[in-house]
Amino acid sequence: MTLSLLSLLARDLSALWLLLKTRTDEIMHQDLSPLCAADIQEQLKKRFAYLSGGRGQDGSPVITFPDYPAFGDVPDKEFQNVMTYLTSIPSLQDAGIGFILVIDRRQDKWTSVKASILRIAASFPANLQLVLVLRPTGFFQRTLSDLAFRFNRDDFKMKVPVIMLSSVPELQGYIDKSQLTEDLGGTLDYCHSRWLCHRTAIESFALMVKQTAQMLQAFGTELAETELPNDVQSTSSVLCAHTEKKDRAKEDMRLALDEGRSVLESIREPLAKSPEQSLNQDQLDSQTTVQRLLAQLNETEAAFDEFWAKHQQKLEQCLQLRHFEQDFREVKAALDALAQKVATFTDVGNSLAHVKHLLQDLTSFEEKSRAAVERAHALCQAGEQLIEHKHYAVDSIRPKCHELRHLCDQFSAAVGHRRGLLSQSLELHCLLEASMKWCDEGIYLLASQPVDKCQSQDGAEAALQEIEKFLETGAQNKVQELSKIYQDYEAILTQDLLEHVQKVFQKQESTEEMLHRRQASLKKLAAKQTRPVQPVAPRPEALTKSPCASPGIRRGSDHHSTEGSALRRGPYRRAKSEVSEGRVRGSSAGDEEESLAVLRRHVMNELLDTERVYVEELLCVLEGYAAEMDNPLMARLVSTGLRSKKDVLFGNMEEIYHFHHRSGLFPVARAPPAETRRPGLCFAGRRSLPPSRGR
């Protein structure tokens, strides 16, 4: 389709160019007179001959030679130029009939008449039909002219007859009075200076029209041969340059049209002043000439306007295409960069806060990329508008629009996929956080239940209700099945996240196991024990005994006082309460020992993890900051006020690190499992270590 539309546009341009060339050729091929009034203006001003515009009975143009005493002094070159110019003014049809010469020598001598006739006969450049001579009016000169002309007729042998006239009325017998000027007794309105101005203006206008046609033809040739540029800058430059030239051409045509209308008005001026007057034949011919030139100029302007409209359309569409292609390259590069950026987003987060931060980053990135996506959509709409307006490059624009839409859809899908993964990660971390929180709350619940209150049946029932109520909350907060987690979150389960899930699940199982054991113990304590009551008769001797308490009774009293003292001491720490509870409840001693072992492991793990992180962070500070202050390459990054103040900034941090690394809990993490059950032995076994300055 692009080739067809482009070929149609080229065909239209070619047709319009041929029309413009035809119009300009018509103007340029018009033959202008070899002589112009402006060239021989001074010679014409002498008025020894003029073309009044009068016509003979058969339409022959009349050239008048008025009484001019210095006629014999006119140089032959000037005489020849004036004759050539005057005979070139009438139309070819009128000139073909032949000219009528009226020679007025009424105030002259016969010798001058003879010389004038002989000179005219020898050098007149056109056809002659008739020569009318007004001979001298003086008696002697008239008689002399009659005799001389009669006896010297052979000297005036011409192709046309020469008629000697004695008076103006005789002249009017050959030429109508209305075709003769006032100096010959006629009524023809003729002003030589006005005629000269008209002739100069008409010829100047004709020359202007021809030059305008030449300019338009040259400009049209340049436009027709212009090749479409391949970039925006060149296309804009060509369009601006051609527009400027077009404006100048239009201005030249406007000036030419104004000049032609002005000349036409000056020719019609007598009619405007007096409607009764009429134009002579020469004036009518001049009017026709000017009207014809104006019509040709209008037709040429119309042809040029059509040609320019098509050429401008071609350049503007080319500029639109170059802008579209340039914007397409920029937008495509931006979308490709965004796609590459999205492809680098692979982290799914290692904590709930991290995932939320990644989601915020993704939202910020999506907002920043919205401008590029909107620009791509706007460019697609612009391309569709070009297609609707029948742009010649439809087959080039439409695939680019499809490609931009495809890139936008791909980017949106990639962002959506990324958001889906992060949403899954957020959901999983929320679930893990809830499980961790549930485990911590369960451990806290186990540790916070006072042992002394659980001795009674009511206290045991209350503690049991707390445990059961807490276990009911596990349905919403626990990780139910690892296999389901693996299946639902397979897309985001990295190795680190998988290990984290397993640790949380193990902690959840341990906590749940402790809760179930505590639940079983409390159920045993809360169960009502029904013993058979046997009536026992009092022993008589018991009433006669001394009121002093027996040793057995005292021991019982001591036992009760000891138990009361234990009740008054309040709740112990979690491990001690478990031990006390185990001592009181002999029936569940084995279960409670296992619970204490689990709690002990959790406590030790927390202590070891905290100590390990603390020692590692101390090492990072010492290596990353304290050591770098002594590095010469990093000296320029340290402000002047902090140089040589390493001891002030870091103090005894290095000694603290060595203490914890050698003698703190950090060595316990590397101790054998048997020693970690009793961490005091780890320190007791290292009493022989050399003391550090940090102790």
Question: What would you say about this model in short?
Answer:
The protein has a five-stranded mixed sheet with strand order 1-2-3-4-5. By secondary structure, the protein is mainly alpha-helical. The chain contains 26 helices and five strands.
Protein architecture, described:
The protein is mainly alpha-helical and 695 residues long. The chain has 4 domains: 2-29 and 210-324; 41-190, Phosphatidylinositol Transfer Protein Sec14p (3-Layer(aba) Sandwich), CATH 3.40.525.10; 345-526, Methane Monooxygenase Hydroxylase, Chain G, domain 1, CATH 1.20.58.60; 573-695, no CATH class. The protein is built from 26 helices and 5 strands. It has helices at residues 2-28, 41-45, 76-88, 92-97, 110-123, 139-151, 168-172, 192-224, 232-267, 269-273, 281-343, 352-388, 394-448, 457-472, 474-477, 482-488, 495-526, 540-543, 551-568, 574-584, 589-626, 646-650, 653-662, 666-669, 673-676, 679-684; strands at 50-55, 61-65, 99-104, 128-134, 162-165. The longest helix has 63 residues, at 281-343.
- CATH structural class of the largest domain: Mainly Alpha
Largest sheet: 5 strands, mixed
Mean pLDDT: 77
The oligomerization state is: single chain
Biggest sheet, spatial arrangement of strands? 1-2-3-4-5
Total count of domains: 4
Give the overall shape: rod-shaped
Report the portion of residues in β strands: under 5%
Give the CATH architecture of the largest domain: Up-down Bundle
What's the CATH topology name of the largest domain?
Answer: Methane Monooxygenase Hydroxylase, Chain G, domain 1
Count of separate DSSP helical elements: 26
The total beta strand count reads 5
What percent of residues adopt helix (DSSP H or I)? 55-70%
> What is the CA-based Rg, rounded?
63 Å
Instruction: Kindly name the structural category.
Output: mainly alpha
First-last Cα distance: 90 Å
